[in-house]
Amino acid sequence: MTAFSADASRTLGGPDWLTRRRSAAAERLADLVWPSTAEEIWRYSAVDRFDPDRYAPVPAGELGPPGAEAVPGGGLLAAEAGERSGLVVVRNGRVVRHELDPALEARGVRVQGLATDTDGVAEPWLGRCSDASPDAFTVLHDAFLAGGAFVHVPRGVVVSAPIVVLHWSEGDGRATFPHTLVVAEEGSEVSVVDRYSSRGRDHLVDAVVELLVGDGAHVRYLSVQEHGPETWQVALQRAHLGRDAGLRASAVALGGDYARLRSETRLDGPGAESDLLAVYFGDGHQMHDFRTLQDHTAPSTRSNLLFKGAVEDEAHSVYSGLVRLRPEAQRSEAYQTNRNLVLTDGAGAESIPNLEIEANDVRCSHASTVGPVDDDQRYYLATRGIPPEEADRLIVMGFFEDVLNRLPVRSLVTPIRAAVTRKIEQRGGVRA
Amino acid sequence: MAASDIDLGSYKLGWSDTEQYVYKPKKGLNETVVRDISHYKSEPEWMTKFRVNALTRFERKPMLEWFARNMPDIDFDDIYYYIKPTEKQVSDWDMLPEEMKTTYERLGIPEAERKFLAGVTAQYESEVVYHKNREDLEALGVLFTDMDTAVREHPEIVQQHFGTVIPPGDNKFAALNSAVWSGGSFIYVPPGVHVDMPLQAYFRINAENAGQFERTLIIADEGASVHYVEGCSAPVYSSDSLHSAVVELIAKPGARIRYTTIQNWSPNVYNLVTKRARAEAEATVEWIDGNLGSKLTMKYPAVVLTGPKAHGEVLSVAYAGPGQHQDAGAKMTHVAPETTSIIDSKSISKDGGRTTYRGLVRVEDGAYGVKSHVRCDALILDEESRSDTYPYMEIEEQDARVGHEATVSKVGDDQLFYLMSRGLDEQQATAMIVNGFIEPITKTLPMEYAVELSRLIELNMEGAVG
Questions:
Q1: Pick from B361, B293, B307, B305: which is nearest to B330 by CA?
Q2: Core-most of A144, A209, A236, B431, by most CB within 10 Å?
């Protein structure tokens, strides 16, 4: 654990409250034990290949002062961000630019970087979700959190166009720690989009997303991951939902060498509802690894999950999900579906949908499938004169379509569909 | 578990007999105990070696974390590993010692034999005490004996197959069984022979703190078929007993084996059983598993599909009442192409009981054209009970179609309402719905067993309010 020292953590600076949180985590670095695949939650993962010595945090000097933008206007990514009410650009885990519709600013909506939050507005919220589900990577994250994005929507305020957060990480052998903290207070509504990109040899992205959805609030959240081919991502996305709160969250995973996302939702308030979607497509030697948790701790809560993935070449994917209905969660419903297409020999998919049910007056089901492209569908398209490669591409896109079509941020459905298509076509189509 | 926690009322097989044993060594496990068992049985040298080797493996193997979590209070030194209840095995019912005869008569064993079975084995503690085979089957070359006799009388078949499906190092409890095994059944069905009626065995633990480690090996040679049925029970004691069997099935090309278990151990028995079958080309193996008793059952019948077009099936019903945990499941390993498997699991938990389905479907690289379907349904009858589902799928072959689905629910209000509007009370209606829920399994059983299973479930349901 050479480069990730308490000293390195201290150089990051920022407001006192943030430094205190960092140093509390940094004290634990010395005793940090990296997980192995012997632990159930890491089973099938690539964590045994993880070598912390290959990475070092980005030094304070390279990060520059908070708010100093290296690429004006958010660079290329911002150009296709589309309609939005706010934009945050995060470079190597620190916010370098943020803007917000002045009308919303006037109503008290806050969009800014944690490192420039000198009033400590974010302090009571930061870590509310991630502290409830720690592992070695969240401790590392907390020790080197340079200053991620903070979105705060006050009571009753409705933000109609999405707030777009662009995370850009780069540097050979660097580790970055992007953070997105969304606080939607009682009765508010907001849509947030996180877009992750990275480049560099041996890059590690250790990200955390916290979604605090207050009583009666509604959050739509979309994360799109297009990391570079040598990037490792180990991320936690965790949401806590209050009474009658609603969350529609989805993830699109296309990039990375090994890209892991823990997606956890805790339904704390009666009447809370969450809808979770994901699309992932891996090729080459990529590995996409999802661990989901739908944790129902209150009565009359409802959650629904649909994760769809495809793998080709030597790519692998893991879906491991748990639905937990605690004894208090009477009259709740929980559904979980994972479907996988294995497109080539050599690719593989693991699917483990788990249930732990401690209440009886519930409805709960899960389903999962792993299989190749259906020959009947191929045959049908062949009889219509569609060449085999084109047919497979259509079938894969059709397979993803029911998720793409339901993505919570409408304005991004078309660009994301294009990105998925690009990814499928990039390797000369799907080989049968 | 304290004595006061045990509900004697609902467990009908919980009496115990006076102990009159020929041989009952000290508690605990070491090489002397293992060598003594082998010596007592006048075993050949290879079996003694097999046992001692297995003991080393048992001592070396760590307790798996999730095993340890399920049974924090097991003490391997507080168990009798071998108890010899009687001097010799009999085939005339009247020659059994009076206590045992009463026990088995209360369990309905001779009656079962008279009625519909092709052969019966009864095991009491560590040894098979009664054995009877139908003569016409013997004439066809069907071998049906207890395992100890088989080691002595059919050494060539036994040595060739024993421990080949479940080697001693497979897991800690298989190693334990391999070291101290005693009793169990041995069946060999020659090529092309169909045994048209089920062969049966009944296992009974009587002494307190006793361990029962029977070992069963069934070989169906090419194109043969056989159905084997086992039942089990034990008295209710304040301290726990351990049942840790190893069952190996070998279905040669085109053969068919069906293995039915109605497990009704008393709620102080740890039931940790390793069951695995090898299905060769075009063979079929079916495990039918009813788990009603025991304090904790951890049992995952497996089929390794080694030959093309082999088929494996596990149909299981689990019922967990107060203080019970049924951690059961199934394992299908598809090694050969065009193999297929079905897992159908139904579980019911009530009065604080906990049911767990834990399963694995694995498709090896090169096993093209595999189809597998897993279905788990759980009924939770009250607020105190719980149900877990952990289905693993590991697919290394692109051309495999594997699916899993599960549901967890309570007894439907509309179903209850419908039945009660037809004049049933709530308890009868709930029992009827539960019986309907497990019907896909009961209909595969011989009729007497189907009736017994339904009755056992109804007994357990008494006093139930859905």
A1: B361
A2: A209
